[in-house]
Each structure stands twice: as structure tokens, then as C-alpha cells.
Amino acid sequence: MAPRVLLVEDDASLGQQVVERLRAAGFEPTWVRDGREALEVSPEPFSLLVLDLMLPGAHGFDVLKKLRSASDVPVLVLSARNDTHDKVRALELGADDYVTKPFWPEELVARVLARLRRPALQRSDLVEAGELAIDLHARRVTVAGEEVALTRVEFDLLAALARRFGSAVSRVWLVEHVLDPDREGTERTLDVHVSRLRKKLGTGGRFLSTVWGVGYRLERPGHP
Amino acid sequence: MTLRRRLAFTLLLTAVPLLLAAAGARYVIAQRYEARLLRDLALSRAESLGRERCESAPEEFLAPPPPMPGRAGPGAPPPARPGPPPPRGWLSAGVGPHRLPARAFVYDAAFRSADPSAPEFPAELRRALEAGSEYASRSYTTADGRNDGLEVAVRTGWTDGRCSVILARGVGATPEWSLGLLWSTLPLVAVMLAAVLVAAGPMVRRIRALTADVHRSADTHYEAPVAVSGRDEIAHLARAFNEAAAKVRAQLGALDQRDRTLRAFLANTTHDVMIPLTVLLGHLSNLRQRLGRGDGADDAQLLGAIQEAQYLASLIHNLGAAAKLESGEPLVERHPVELGALVERVVERHRPVADPAGIAVEFGIPERPIVVEGDETLIEQAVSNLVHNAVRYNRSGGHVAVLLEESPAGFRLRVMDDGPGVPEAELQRLVERRQRGDEARQRHPYGLGLGLHIAHDVVERHGFQMTLGRSEHGGLEATISGALRTRGS
User: Fold this and answer.
1) Edge-to-edge strands of the sheet including B149-155?
2) N or C: which end of chain A has fewer CB within 10 A?
């Protein structure tokens, strides 16, 4: 079932755009245009709330306060003013994130996805991407069910990326935390380890991407 | 009430009660003096006549003198008068204000008199003598109804017999006589009044002059000072006014400056915003024309429109930041700012423009949150400006990376690109020279105008450092570094 998102936005054009974008991104949006009405809506069925602050009927802060007294549903605030005070106050009142107007629809959808992805980020010992499976606890890696024999450094490298699946990890961090400090650990050594690892993983190697200017990332291509 | 009228009124208000009190005191003192005089006269007269004479004929004692020649006319018979018998007892009343004859009667120790014409001894005086006083006096109403009689009772010292106590009657001071003092001082009071009014003249004139000066000064927006002369309170007032005027001038100046800055800012802002808006309108118009001709949308033109809109948004945010920074006030908003989330937000804002342009924007942040203290809006704007420049002046197939790392000193945030970069000379100029606001406003050929200026300002205001250099990948690399938020701050 598509995750339900509650949108509280008084502007007709902006609201319509956001609703369309959320629907296109696979969400089921419910649109409320008035602050008073927003105070009445039960947050129960929603996975996330997108809240404009300047509303007729009741201020977004009041909606946020009322909501936070009863629910932990993630709240993404739309901040009209580029005003630090508003943002800080919204965060203090329990908002999880904010987007400053003007924003690109893609930007908003990315923030919503990031917010919904976050709770699933909980550590799990098993990380899977396509045919690649990494068991962090047993230190075992399989590609399409076949176990791949890795050196200690290679496994540690893969495990470090798997723990932050989807995020780019910097080369400097990997050199410092994965490579053997006794041996000469340089970024070049790291690159050599990565290329060996890719080779060993075979088809599973395509999940290990090089991130320009940053380092490496384990991800499902096309699903950032 | 004018100053002069108030002075005159105050003078009269103090002088009149004071004079009345003086007259009252004079009356009391005169009365006391008369009483003593009457007592001394009675005693000395009794002393000189002797006790025997008194005891033998008390009614004759202190008899009045024979009629003074010329007083009632020589040889004239005593005038026959009705009412009480004529005064018999004698005391020379040659003192006191009225010089009227006094009379005296003698009484025994029980205050009884052998003289049938003697009045009943006044109870009030009797009580005073019995209480141990040597003598006592009181006012009484004389037979003719004038309330200026004075009675004095005194013990003779002859304790037994018929002559123990003398009651002498005379004339005391009158209230009218006492008030005479008041009338006599009236000219003096008038002279004083005149003196005060004359003395107040120069003072009043100076105050009037000062008032006119103050009006004049106010008319010239407090530019003209008021004249200060002398060292008295009026001079102090003039000096205080000049000091206050200086403060008012300074405040007016500051307000004026703010007003001018605001006007200039508005004018510049309008100008800055109109250019990209015009370009955007041009793109949209061209697209519409192409669609009308059936040519289909031109992707490059669409991208141009998108970039122009992005530039416009960034410009407006930058102008807001500039207004905040140029006010010169210290940063009010200081809150914990998590740089990782900030980097993620900035990158996601630029991706919708970078992606269709074929520019990959990547970011790397550490797992552990990196928290600094500052104004989140301003820091985000600074980082956004660096990313915006890196994207805007890159080409299709190019890369931009934002890398946030912990460093021994705190944090290091790098924005790198592999675009054409900035010529060495230009880079040197950017790094070494603080750009002036006006210059930075211009659309810089390398896009390093207002955005970079603001990034630089923000970094400086937060106590961070920013360096610009050549990226190892060929483009530009901007690095911001600084300290983390200390615990508890």
C-alpha cells in the first residue's frame, strides 16, 4: 500500500503541484488547506506530514504543537521565509526537517523519501542489494548464493560501505578506519583494494560505485 | 502664571503671615511688660507708704493723687459721673503705651478687702497666687467695654493683717496698637516686592531668549546650538539642551543613514532581480514561439529557464542574507547546526538543476553528526552559493562534490568541481582582495560575484575560514573550516 502523506498548504497552485508530485512519486496524498481543519485531522493513518507554516485559521506552529502532543509522525515543514528563527522554532517544536521556498518539486520528494527511509536505516546484520548479500555478523558475503572469499581488509571495506548503505563514504575515512594502520595505507592502496573487491564480487560489483570527489558507495543503481 | 507673578505671590504669601505673627508676639510681650511694670509700681508704692498706714486705713491706702492742675481745669469741681465711683487708688501710670491712671486695692490673706469699693478678687488670679506664684496677671474688660484692661495680683509680703495682697488695675496693650506694626512695615514690603520684580527681570529676559533660541534650533533640525552665557542654572540648562540636541542629531543621522541604505538596497535589489527575470521571460517566450511554430520545446532553452529561475531564487536569498550581514549587527541567531543534514539539503536543492544539465552533484558526510554553532540560514546560503557556482559554471558531464569531514581542528567542508575553473590571475584576485559589495553585485563572468562575497562574509562572521584554490580535478575548490560547537555553549 502506498504511504499516505498529509499535506497542509493553503496556496491552491502550490498545493496542487505538490499533490501531483507526491502522487507521481508513489505516495497517497491528502490535502488540507486550512489551519483549523489541520488541527482536527487525526495523524494516525499518515506516514508523514508536509506542513506549511503560514496558514489561515491557525499557525503552523500551533498545528505542530497539537500534533506533537499525540503523535511521532515525521513532519516536514515548508518555510516561506528564509528566517532562521522560524526554522529553529519549528525544529524545537518537533519538526523533523524543513524545505525553504522556493523549492523544486524533486527537492521536496527527495526530502520526503529521505525522511521515510531513515527509520529503516536501523542496523541489520544482513545487507542485500540484488544478488549481493552481506552478513555482517557472520562476516560472510555471497553473490547469487555463492560465497565469495574475501581478505580481512576487503571484507572490512565492504562492511563499512554496507553499514552506511546508500551513502557515499569518503576515501580518507576508509583509509583511516579500514586499512591496516601498520602497513602503508594510502588512497591509492584503497583504490587497489576496491578494484580487487569488485573483481571478486563479479556481477555484484556493480553495486559498489565510485563517487566522484568523495569516495565509494554501496547502492542499488537507480535507487539512491 | 508667569515667573514674576509667581515671585510676587510667593513673597506676599510668606510676608503677611510672618508680619501677623510678629504683631501677635509684640502684643504678648507688651502685655507681659505692662504687667511687670504695674506690679513693680504697686509694690514700691506700698513699700514707701508703709504697712501701718495700710492697716489703719486700707481703703485710703494707695489713694489717688490730688487732681492735677490743668487736667480737669483749675478749681473746677470734679465732674459728676454716673456708674462706678471715680478712681481712688493711685498708681502713676507714666509708662506703657497708654499712660492712663491705674488703680489698686488691698486684700487680706483670705482675699477679702476692707474697702467696700474693691471688686471681688478674681478667682483666676487667686488660684495662681495660692499655687505659689509671686504675682499673676490677666486681661479683663474695662467698665467702658474696651477689652484692654490689665489686672495684676501681687503679694505684699505682709502675711497677716488686711494688707496681704494688692490687686492693681491698669490699661494693657491693645491689638490695634500691635497691628500698627503691620501698617508701618507695609512700605518695606512694597519695596521688597519691587526689588524682587526688578531682580527677576534679567532672569526672565534670559529665559525668554533661551526659549527663542530653542525654537530656532528645532527649526534647523537642531543644527544651530543655543547661546550659552554665564555659569548659573540658566547656562546649565542651555548647555544641557545643546548636549541633548547633539544626541538627537546623532540619532537623526543614524536613521537617515539607515533610510538611505534601505533605499539603495531596494533599488539594487530591484535591478538585480529584474535581469534574470527578463532572461527567464525571454526563454519562456521563445519556447512558446517554438511550440506555436510546431518546432517542439528546445531542451537547452528549457534548461536555461530552469537555471535562471534557480539563479533568481538564490539571488533573493542572497539579498536577504546581504541585508542581514550589511546591517553590521552581531549575529543574533546562534543555534546548533548539523552540517551533514545541511550539506544533504543543499545538494538536493541543486540536483534538480544539475541533473538535466548533465552535471553530477555528489556529497559525502561522516556518520557522526558534525555540529557547529551559528545561523543555519546563513551557513546554508554560504554552502549553497559555493555549490551553485560550481554547478552553474560547469559543463555537461561535469561533476560537483561536497565533502564534509572531521578534522583535528573541527570540521572541513570542501566544494569541488571539474569545471573550467578560474584563471590563475582571477583566482588570485578573488582570494587576495575582499570584494566591495557594489562590485560583487555585478554578474561576474565566473559567477563569483555576490554569492562568493556573501559566503565569505558568512564564514568570517562565524569565525570560520574559507580558502579558494584549484581543485585536483581541474576546477575550483572552496574549503570552509572551523571549530565544532563546544559542549554546553
Assistant:
1) B103-107, B165-171, B149-155, B135-140
2) N
Of B335, B362, B381, the CB nearest to A212: B362
Cβ of A84 under 8 Å from any chain B Cβ? yes
What's residue A135's pLDDT? 92
Cβ within 8 Å of B, A 132-191? 163-164, 167-170, 172-173
- Cell numbers for A214: 568523495
Measured in angstroms, the CA of B280 and the nearest CA of chain A are apart by 16
Does A107 share its domain with A128?
no
* pLDDT tens per residue, range A22-47: 999 999 999 999 888 888 888 889 99
Residues A28 and A112 in one domain: yes
Nearest chain B residue to A115 by CA: give it: B341
CA gap B175, B304 in Å, rounded: 113
Query: Are B345 and A111 inside 8 Å of each other by CB?
Result: yes
Percent of chain B with pLDDT over 70: 84
Secondary structure of residue A186 in the 3-state scheme: coil
Judge if A88 and A148 occupy the same domain: no
Tens of pLDDT, residues A151-199 = 999 999 999 999 999 899 999 999 988 887 777 678 889 999 999 999 9
Number of domains in chain A: 2
Domain enclosing residue A164, as ranges: 120-218
Q: Grid coordinates standing for B429?
A: 584576485
A132 and A107 belong to one structural domain: no
B333 interfaces chain A, CB cutoff of 8 Å: yes
Q: What is the pLDDT of residue A224?
A: 46
A107, A111, A169 ranked by CB distance to B364: nearest? A169
- B218 Cα distance to chain centroid: 21
Same-domain pairing of A143 and A77: no
From chain A, pick out residues whose CB is under 8 angstroms from the CB of B365.
167
Contact A100/A77 with Cβ under 8 angstroms? no
Q: What is the mean pLDDT of chain B?
A: 81
Quote the longest CA-to-CA distance of chain B: 164
* Contact assessment for residue A113 and residue A25, using Cβ atoms and an 8 Å cutoff: yes
Q: With an 8 Å Cβ cutoff, is A211 touching chain B? A: yes
- Contact call for residues B400 and B354 (beta carbons, < 8 A): yes
Residue A57 belongs to some domain of the structure? yes
CA distance A40 to chain B (A): 31
Give the distance from residue A199's alpha carbon to the nearest chain B alpha carbon, in angstroms. 25
* Cβ–Cβ below 8 Å for A168 and B405: no
As for the ipTM of the complex, it is 0.83
Mean pLDDT, residues B67-71: 45
User: Which residue has 546581504 as its cell numbers?
Assistant: B322
**Which among B332, B377, B406 is the top mutation candidate for probing chain A, defined by the most A β-carbons within 10 Å of its own β-carbon?**
B377
Query: Are A214 and B317 in contact (CB < 8 Å)?
Result: no
Residues A134 and A103 in one domain: no
Model confidence over A108-141: pLDDT tens digits? 998 998 888 754 444 578 888 889 999 999 999 9
Scored b (16 or more CB within 10 A) or e, B275-291 reads ebeebbeebbebbeeee
Nearest to A213 among B317, B321, B399 (CB): B399
Query: Model pTM?
Result: 0.62
A223 occurs within a structural domain? no
CB contacts of B419 in chain A (<8 Å) are none
Residue appearing with cell numbers 524533486:
A106
- Both A13 and A102 in one domain: the answer is yes
